[in-house]
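Exercise: predict the fold of this chain.
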Amino acid sequence: MPVLSSDRPRLLRVLLALCAVTAFFATATPARAAEADAPAPVTQAAYLADRLRENPVHVTDQLPREIPRSTAPDFARLAKKAGVPTYVLVLPSQSSTHARQLLGAVHDRLGRDGVFVLVDESGITEATAYGVRVPADAALTVTRYELPYDAGPLLSFERFVDVIAQGGEKATARAEAAREKYRDDEPADMYIGPSDRENQSFVTGILLTGVPLTILLVAGFARRRRRRSGAGRRVPRWVVPGAAVLTAAAFALTAPVVFDQTRSSAAEPPAPADLSARVDRVAAGLKQDPVYADPESPRVLDSRQRDRLHDRIRDFRRSDGGGPVYVLLVPQTPESESAGDSWLFAAAVHAKARQDGLYVVAAPDDGTIDVYNYGLRIDADRLSLDLPDAVTLGDSKADDADDHLLGERLDTLMTFLDKAPRTDRPDLESAPAAAPKADEHTLPPLFATDFLPGLFVGAFAALVLSAAVAGVMWTAGRLLRRRDPAPEPTDRLPFTAPTEPSASYLRRTAYTELHTLTGEFTDPDDRTRAWDHLDAAMLLVDGDPDRARAAGTDPATLVAVIVLARAGRAALAGDTDGLCCGVNPLHGPAVSRHHVRVTTEGVARRLLPVCEPCRDTAIAQPGGIPGRLLKLPDPSLGNSRVPYYDYDDATDGPLTAVPHGIARLIDKVRETAGVH
């Protein structure tokens, strides 16, 4: 049939469209061939259900430093003691809400009844019974209350199945007893840390030299005292050295028995296969798909985001100076083979996969993104320094999202890579630092680490005892000073003044300060500022300085006397600043005013004058100020102590004026005494 001339343009357009469609599929099909062969992403619950279908105990390969996969037979052996089908999932920590949902989803996928238990690096986090009558909730409560936090996952699971086997009534009673017993105080730790072992070594060293040398020094001093007094030798010479040697030997032999800990954790040492399992799994997965999503973790990329990421990776690979991009959606935990170091993990996967390119480690648990360059023409330093924080760390919106907005941030990363300038030659990451040793929970020997410093400290402590005579002289001098007291130097007050002074200290100090001011005041007719201080202090003791030493004098009155007397002496010396430390008035003069935290609960602050040490504490360690506050006994509260400015709050006593300056304190004393 002949084609009309009017139909030829239409037919031509149809043929051109068919050619364009054919060309598109001819070019697109090879590019997507690899992606078509890759398996569709499997949800977390489906993947875990398949693992439990193969074996009722699944131990992840992501926690080898805490729970090696080689412990799976131990979990399986304990699970049989429960008496009902028990399915155990050992996974990196999940949120409590997600953990409950995950167990329910896995049970639905598996289609089998029993006790489903979720275990992480700290112990059992969730347990639910489906279709069986067992006290799962009570058993979970017992493990959380009876065991310390460092008991370890295996012991936690053992305690769990033991309680399950007891039955509902006994398990419920045991749970209630555990909750009541450990409501406020947790059980004692089962293991010690490296710092504790260092302390043990240090103490052992001190005892090993300090006690024997003390015996020698004290005996030698006693011997010299006897010689001076003319007494004869009562014991043979070898007795004291022999006693010292025997004491040293006793400490050396008993210390390893007392400090017998050898490990800092319940974790078993991982085998080499445990440490390489996850890297092998990820490297094998990258051969199928450049985007590897950890099947044990919640899904963070939907199908649309995954397809777009594949398209962006393909386009970057074809771009000028581009290349392969491998995205590893794998969590990075301290218990993993790389100890949570994404750089070390990327290097291990690259070495195993033997494929150059950009390795993007995107952690689905915390949402961090790190990029490492192995062989592409992009500056590796630029990747680490110029990537926006919104990409690598995310923002508040990403923190609140379950998927940490990884799909959007990875898309932004690909845009950054497209625009990144190319280098003349391929760049390579430097080698990362080695991971911690596999058996990092083994404690060092007792006679190591701080044992040698302990020996020196023990020897020094023993030598200090040779100053016993000086100590006696110091005691005698102190008694003499009590008979003829003298005030303590002002510059030492912030370091020697107590925060909870005794009544005897306040009486003694008030009398000493008032007596000294009276002696230094030589011109009472001159109405100087010093006269105001003396006058106010005398009003507080009814004009008799000896009343400051009388028993039963109010502590607040004594503090006010001390403050006024010291300020009066300062005024006589020409210091008219008139501010006293508002944190502890016994510290003496203040140097400035500062907002300080006055309670350990909340963030309540007050503007107070402060001495120099209190100012330094307020700046460097604000939480240390409440511990420096002057506290006085409050009889209305059973002699418990309260801050000095609260002591007189109810009666509007003179101490409430201390934070406002000495002049206000003087006025307050006169108002209280009715003097104008």
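Check your answer against the key: The first helix runs from residue 8 to 37.
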